[in-house]
């Protein structure tokens, strides 16, 4: 089974529950976030809010693994890129190489850490903490062998309209990232017409209402 994160822009409200779920799972310090939620590039002519939700994208050609001098990174059969903390020497070469900013340097330990797709949870047939923590099912995990998408709200047999990159993210040819997105659909603008009440015979046209006391 090969897994990828899938993010639906139509459902995300930018609440950050996925970020907090990840921090609770791994007890990361305030300045280290394995997942991030930020506003997407917006069109001023289209008054709608949308977000970009990213973490490590577990690339097919991970830049972190290519530059690591001690081979601390490896790729599992399911596509998850993991890091050997014991091997890491804190040189930060992977931090500089990753176009997605996934590796995070933790100075007190002189180590680099990153999202590892919660692989111990995967091995226990559980959802990643960020996916489980999303209250609206905007963040999910897709099984590429079956096409099924698993979210906190349940399983979707098939999803259409997926894309493999967003304008806000690096060119996918650099590292061949493993993520999927469902783009935001244009919002419908609803305009209300206010109709003034009709003037009855008992009312004087142009009469003024009561004035506020001074």
User: Per DSSP, what share of the residues sits in E-state strands of 2 or more residues?
Assistant: 15-25%
Amino-to-carboxy terminus distance? 75 Å
Largest sheet data = 6 strands, mixed
What characteristic shape results from the CA principal axes?
A: elongated
CATH architecture of the domain at 3-59 and 118-182: 2-Layer Sandwich
Q: How many DSSP helices?
A: 5
The name CATH uses for the topology of the domain at 3-59 and 118-182 is: Alpha-Beta Plaits
Rounded average pLDDT = 88
> Could you give the order of the helices and strands?
EHEEHEEHEEHHEEEEE
What Rg do the Cα atoms give? 24 Å
The total strand number stands at: 12
Q: If strands are numbered along the chain, what order do they take across the biggest sheet? A: 10-9-8-1-12-11
Structural class: alpha+beta
CATH hierarchy, class of the domain at 3-59 and 118-182? Alpha Beta
Q: Portion of residues in helices?
A: 10-25%
Uncertain segments of ≥5 residues (pLDDT<50)?
none
What's this model, at a glance?
This protein has 214 residues and is α+β, with helices and mostly antiparallel strands. Helix content is 14%, strand content 20%.
């Amino acid at each position: 089974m090969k897994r990828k994160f899938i993010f639906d822009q139509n459902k995300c409200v930018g609440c950050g529950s996925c970020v907090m779920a990840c921090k609770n799972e791994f007890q990361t310090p305030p300045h280290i976030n394995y997942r991030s939620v930020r506003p997407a590039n917006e069109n001023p002519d289209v008054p709608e809010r949308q977000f970009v939700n990213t973490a490590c994208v577990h690339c097919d050609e991970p830049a972190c693994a290519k530059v690591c001098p001690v081979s601390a990174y490896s790729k599992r059969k399911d596509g998850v890129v993991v890091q050997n903390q014991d091997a890491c020497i804190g040189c930060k070469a992977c931090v500089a190489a990753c176009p997605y900013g996934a590796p995070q340097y933790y100075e007190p330990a002189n180590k680099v850490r990153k999202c590892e797709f919660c692989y111990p949870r995967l091995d226990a047939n559980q959802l990643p903490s960020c996916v489980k923590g999303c209250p609206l099912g905007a963040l999910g995990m897709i099984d590429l062998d079956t096409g099924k998408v698993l979210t906190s709200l349940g399983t979707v047999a098939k999803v259409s309209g997926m894309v493999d990159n967003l304008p806000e993210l690096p060119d996918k040819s650099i590292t061949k990232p493993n993520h999927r997105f469902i783009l935001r659909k244009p919002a419908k603008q609803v305009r209300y017409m206010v109709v003034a009440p009709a003037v009855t015979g008992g009312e004087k046209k142009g009469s003024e209402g009561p004035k506020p006391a001074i």
